[in-house]
Amino acid sequence: MSPLVTGALLGGLFGAGLLLVVRRLPFLRRPSVDDRIGPYLRDIGGSEVFLGVVDSSSPFYAVLRLFGPSLRAGATRLERLLGGAASVRRRLSRAGIDRTVEEFRIEQVLWGAAGFGLGLLVALVALSLGVGNPVGLLVLSAFLAVIGVLSRDTYLTSQVRRRERRLLAELPTVAELLALSVAAGEGPAAALDRVARSCRGELAIELQRVLAETRAGEPLVRALDALADRTGLVALSRFADGLAVALERGTPLADVLRAQAGDIREASRRELIESGARREISMMVPVVFLVLPVTIAFAFYPGAVGIRLIAG
């Protein structure tokens, strides 16, 4: 790398650092309303980033304390750029993650910073070896930062899908246990309580939340409707709606639960058959594009060589 390029890079880094320092000077920075009233509200629960879930003896705690305001500012800018707060809030609820949209945006900022740091590391190694263009490597770092931000969103979608699969796998067993409890003479709330205490899994956690809402004064039917809206699964919504209708109209609850468990198992069986059919089609891709050409080459190559020898 030429001395001119090295000097330009060092000068740019120095200028960027000096600009950051100058912008953070107290007499040049106008404090916001949150900064002015924040110290007076610290005792009733501040808005520190992730500090409630991080051990105070961890080094990560000090990092969050130091860069918390910058992370919140980056999360605000990212929210203005990307938008979709309602979609993020809904997916966080469906994934069972107790985070706000701001905390999720902060996680995206951290993932983007990690991608940018990885790009800078690659750029420094490449420049030390005399390979690559500094501008291109800087663009690569920015591209990795964007990939990091989008990867956190994609990972959230995968978390939602995994949790929905677990809920669907647990739903038939929970429905049959509820049917057994109701048939044994227990009421709907007592049966839900027994199943929630006996089972382990995502659906048991949701049932415990339903029971907590009913103990707080919410009607059971409305709590079940909230469960259906919160999960977003068609089968679970049908299950909650069936429970609510049975409670409102006095339908035999055990028969309804057994019928729903059978319908859920039949739907899972159909989905498994459809998934197998899709996998069968996808398995044809390596057979057609990899195995078949190699087989044809092995079959025709000796004949082609023989014809060439005869013709020669």
Automatic annotation (TrEMBL):
<feature type="transmembrane region" description="Helical">
    <location>
        <begin position="109"/>
        <end position="129"/>
    </location>
</feature>
<feature type="domain" description="Type II secretion system protein GspF">
    <location>
        <begin position="176"/>
        <end position="298"/>
    </location>
</feature>
<keyword id="KW-1003">Cell membrane</keyword>
<keyword id="KW-1133">Transmembrane helix</keyword>
<feature type="transmembrane region" description="Helical">
    <location>
        <begin position="6"/>
        <end position="22"/>
    </location>
</feature>
<keyword id="KW-0472">Membrane</keyword>
<dbReference type="Pfam" id="PF00482">
    <property type="entry name" value="T2SSF"/>
</dbReference>
<dbReference type="InterPro" id="IPR018076">
    <property type="entry name" value="T2SS_GspF_dom"/>
</dbReference>
<dbReference type="GO" id="GO:0005886">
    <property type="term" value="C:plasma membrane"/>
</dbReference>
<feature type="transmembrane region" description="Helical">
    <location>
        <begin position="135"/>
        <end position="156"/>
    </location>
</feature>
<protein>
    <submittedName>
        <fullName>Type II secretion system F family protein</fullName>
    </submittedName>
</protein>
<feature type="transmembrane region" description="Helical">
    <location>
        <begin position="287"/>
        <end position="311"/>
    </location>
</feature>
<keyword id="KW-0812">Transmembrane</keyword>
